[in-house]
Write a structure and sequence with these properties.
With 335 residues, the chain is α/β, with parallel strands linked by helices. The protein has 15 helices and 7 strands. The chain has 2 domains: 14-113 and 221-331, Rossmann fold, CATH 3.40.50.150; 120-219, DNA polymerase, domain 1, CATH 1.10.150.170. S-adenosyl-L-methionine binds at residues 37-39, 55, 87, 108, 115.
């Protein structure tokens, strides 16, 4: 099958994602974070399958609709179905469209390259733009947060989501600055943060962690991950696979914990928590495809610096006795 080009976008760890997902003809997959469409294009090129794609960004939906047109058959149908919304609501979004059970789900967490590169989205402080940071087009912006949130709450999200040790100092500087004039641009917020957070040997901009914390809060990214992982595993058919690429420790920790729990690899139960003991004794419905996270190759990191922090994990729903006896030979996965 001819590969579909992916203009202006480099999907991270694409060969590893495809190898783990193992697309096959006649199957149904979900790309829960369409973004630039890199994984979607590759999946649709690898097999004559059906793909549902979710993204809350209207710009991503427009890119997907262009790909839909490329794939449109003479009878007007397409193997790609675009859905606007958050992947944390995938169950309801697909149920409304009578989508079938899924043979595989891929999630590429965090902000997309397109969003980082679009100045007007306000995700990056490398160029000056409006302080927005929303992945979609609804809800409070980052400017709303930094100009109205209480100092203690602001310090908490910067510490918890940005892992910034000087979060109280950052929050205090923001509150002092906004008393003089509203903080409306990425450059101004970055300058305020840099005034109280010194650089270090890592070479990472001092504003990076605080920007991450605010962005995660604006988009409820961790809440979306928890909900999305639960729903994705629930919607997988026997033998179906969930493949997740994360980009920082907060994301990866949630993915690791959810997958280990589903595969029965829970921590030793406490005698003070009988419920945990029962959960640990249940027969697992999943098996891990990765006992520890896979990392990108050195060559990929050189070619695409944004891949450097990527971690890849996967899990597979165990086949049931019924599915093993009824599955046709054509549905067998390649080794």
């Amino acid at each position: 099958m001819t590969a579909l080009p992916t203009p202006g976008h480099i999907p991270v760890m694409l060969p590893e994602v495809l190898d783990m997902l193992a697309p096959r003809d006649g199957a149904t997959y979900l790309d829960g974070t369409f973004g630039g469409g890199g994984y979607a294009r590759a999946i649709l090129s690898a097999a004559r399958c059906t793909l549902w794609a979710i993204d809350r960004d209207p710009a991503a939906i427009r890119r997907g609709e262009a790909l839909q047109a490329e794939l449109r058959a003479p009878d007007g149908t397409s193997r790609l179905h675009m859905v606007q919304g958050g992947f944390g609501e995938m169950r309801d979004l697909l149920a409304q469209r009578d989508a079938p059970m899924l043979d595989g789900v891929v999630l590429d967490l965090g902000v997309s390259s397109f969003q980082l590169d679009e100045v007007e989205r306000g995700f990056s402080f490398r160029t000056d733009g409006p302080l927005d940071m929303r992945m979609g087009d609804t809800g409070p912006t980052a400017a709303d947060i930094v100009n109205t949130m209480a100092e203690t709450d602001l310090a908490n999200i910067i510490y918890e989501y940005g892992e910034e040790r000087r979060s109280r100092r950052v929050a205090g500087a923001i509150v002092a600055a906004r008393a003089e004039a509203p903080i409306l641009t990425t450059f101004r917020l970055a300058e305020i943060i840099r005034s109280v957070v010194p650089g270090d040997r890592s070479g990472i901009d001092p504003a990076t962690r605080s920007f991450q914390g605010i962005r995660i809060h604006v988009n409820d990214e961790l809440g979306q991950i928890v909900s999305g992982l639960e729903q994705a595993m629930e919607m997988l058919s026997p033998g179906g696979r969930l493949v997740v690429v994360s980009f920082h420790s907060l994301e990866d920790r949630l993915v690791k914990r959810a997958m280990n729990r589903a595969a029965g690899r829970v921590p030793a139960p406490s005698r003070h928590d009988p419920g945990a003991m029962r959960a640990g004794q249940e027969v697992p419905e999943f098996r891990l495809l990765t006992t520890k996270a896979l990392r990108p190759t050195d060559a990929e990191c050189r070619a695409n610096p944004r891949a450097r922090s990527a971690r890849l994990r996967g899990i597979e729903r165990l086949p049931t006795a019924e599915s093993l006896t009824s599955a046709p030979l054509s549905t067998e996965r390649r080794p």
